[in-house]
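DOMAIN: structural biology
WANTED: fold as tokens
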Amino acid sequence: MNLYFQKHFLPVVALFFAVIALVLLHQKLAIQLPINGMFIAIVNGMLFCMALFNFKRISQVDMTNPNAIVQSVMIGTMFKFIVFGGAALWYASQKKAPIGTNNLCIAMGLYLVYTWIEISWTKRKKDA
């Protein structure tokens, strides 16, 4: 692995393992919170995979072209939106138990944190 990947992808790896550790801690200690740990773990895994894909794409963008930078960030955002929209429609069509407001708020918070990290990659690469 090259140093650029290790240095800039480390926050995503740390976030991924921190969320998984919290989910496992929640399940192991049987804390009485209205949170579906498996749902949060799956959302976290999906976001991690998409962050890996977006990191690969952002690292290949020509930073001298501002239009390419904006398009790259927008493509990443649309990709996540389409994947999560499709997953929500698929889950709704299965007629399973409701997800719950707490789980949706946690998932949106994770989405925002992963997106913030991805945008910071673009800014760091542009400054370098």
